[in-house]
Specification:
This protein starts with a strand and ends with a helix. α1 packs parallel to α8 and α2 (about 45-60) crosses α3 (about 65-95). It has about 450 residues and is an alpha/beta fold. The chain has 3 domains: about 5-130 and about 255-325, FAD/NAD(P)-binding domain (3-Layer(bba) Sandwich), CATH 3.50.50; about 145-255, FAD/NAD(P)-binding domain (3-Layer(bba) Sandwich), CATH 3.50.50; about 335-439, 2-Layer Sandwich (Enolase-like, domain 1), CATH 3.30.390. It has helices spanning about 15-25, 45-60, 65-95, 150, 170-180, 200-215, 265-270, 300-315, 345, 360-365, 400-415, 415-420, 430-439; strands spanning about 5-10, 30-35, 95-100, 105-110, 110-115, 120-125, 130-135, 145, 160-165, 185-190, 215-220, 225-230, 235-240, 245, 250, 255, 285-290, 330, 335-340, 350-355, 380-385, 390-395.
């Protein structure tokens, strides 16, 4: 068995792991990255972006139907996934990261084995091994009648009826894409928390109105108790006994945080991966980032956590982890985004709210905002009434993600409303409405 000694080992080559490895190399330390499968973002993330883009191209030509859209999206996904992995491997090599293929298992607090024979001895570790889909009672997803988001685009064809289970951002984006296909009926099942429970209610309701107008059947208020894959149907049972069935059910019920036993956390002396504000576990030389921590709602959060954990593992100073400074984005129609403190957290606080309708800005006019139910657009920026410091933003419509990303910069730098009002540019563009509201 060959032995490799390194300063930092990163377990997991997804979004968080790659960010951790690249950040650690900037501390002039040796870094080893271990991944059993492919490097890069979760396949579902890339797949849904490809599906969204493919649907948009077909709609621009007049109509989007499931067979041609599905065939084109699957081919494009295969091409882009391979290209993405190739580019990531080159960037990791350029950064000086040694990449090892194989499953990692910790064997002591300072060593791990990689499937295939290599032993890695390390000073610090970042665990970013991801998490599996949260299970529901009943049959496990078979990739045919019951599918996880990762399995969805492996299907050779899309049936005319699809049930989507889960009211979070993943479910919302998938439902939005499928609902634009002319020959697909979509049923969206959520629990009592409803659509996008972590989002500003006005944002969630804007999307719900559009989806209802497209004919999506929205079912919420009851928890899913059982799912079954039968010979030709998927059956989803709800609390109270009612159920829905169709040729395919996609389970978007979140990710399972508990790490697998095959990772060997017992050899580290850990039974969980609870992290502090530096993303350190109970062992000061072991850090964790991404979905495996149980607190990672998006790829942006995973990348931010990976960067922070990698820097900390390399011995660099880091700011405390603050997930509220990372935008939450739903790439639907209308696009939704928020960052910072949401209205429920601002309740009872002295704030100034700046609002604008996106169609009132030149950029919104050119984008056709306000010309249809799925072209809604508004932005709302909350600032402290005494200091003017930016506290949070929510937005809907074209450019919502751009506005949330700009507000994230303001939050990170402690900027005020006066400072933002003095920023000019992006005319016509997405930020025009935000700056107009401040002025």
């Amino acid at each position: 068995m060959s032995t490799i000694e390194t300063d930092v080992v990163v377990v997991g080559g997804g979004t968080a792991g790659i960010a951790a490895a690249r950040a650690a190399t900037k501390g002039d330390v040796m870094v080893v990255l271990v991944e059993a499968a492919r490097f890069g973002e979760p396949r579902a993330l890339l797949g849904w972006r490809v599906l969204e883009r493919t649907v948009g191209r077909h709609l621009a030509r007049g109509e989007a139907k499931r067979a041609p859209v599905w065939d084109e999206a699957r081919a494009e996904l295969a091409r882009l996934a391979a290209l993405r992995e190739e580019r990531l491997e080159l960037r990791l090599a350029d950064a000086g990261v040694e990449a090892l293929r194989g499953r990692a298992r910790f064997t002591s607090p300072r060593s791990l084995e990689v499937e295939g024979g290599a032993e890695v001895r390390f000073d610090h570790a970042v665990i970013a091994a991801g998490a599996g889909a949260a299970p529901l009672d009943g049959d496990a997803p078979d990739g045919r009648r019951l599918a996880t988001p990762e399995q969805l685009l492996d299907l050779p064809a899309l049936p005319p009826e699809v049930i989507v289970v889960g009211g979070g951002a993943a479910g919302a984006e998938l439902v939005d894409a499928l609902a634009q296909l002319a020959d697909v009926e979509v049923t969206w099942i959520m629990d009592e928390l409803g659509i996008l429970p972590s989002f500003d209610r006005e944002l969630a309701e804007a999307l719900a109105d559009v989806l209802l107008g497209r004919g999506v059947k929205l079912v919420h208020g009851k928890r899913v108790t059982h799912v079954t894959a039968e010979a030709h149907r998927a059956v989803v049972r709800l609390d109270g006994g009612h159920g829905y069935d169709g040729p395919l059910a996609v389970i978007c019920a979140g990710r399972r945080a508990p790490p697998p036993s095959s990772l060997g956390l017992d050899a580290l002396g850990l039974d969980a991966l609870d992290v502090d504000e530096r993303l350190a576990t109970r062992l000061e030389h072991v850090f964790a980032a991404g979905e495996i921590t149980g607190h990672c709602p998006s790829a942006a959060h995973a990348e931010a956590m990976g960067r922070l954990a990698g820097r900390a593992a390399a011995g660099r100073e880091v700011r405390p982890w603050d997930p509220r400074q990372i935008p939450e984005i739903v790439r639907s129609h209308p696009q939704l985004a928020q960052v910072g403190m949401t209205p429920d957290l601002l309740a009872g606080r002295e704030v100034v709210i700046y609002t604008a309708r996106t169609e009132e800005a030149l950029g919104g006019l050119l984008e056709g905002v306000g010309e249809g139910a799925d072209r809604k657009g508004f932005v709302r920026l909350a600032c402290d009434s005494s200091t003017g410091q930016v506290l949070g933003l929510s937005a809907a419509g074209p450019g919502a993600a751009t506005m949330a990303s700009s507000a994230a910069i303001a939050l990170r730098l402690g900027a005020t409303d006066e400072a933002l009002a003095d920023v000019f540019g992006d005319v016509p563009g997405a930020l025009g409405a935000l700056f107009a509201a401040l002025r």
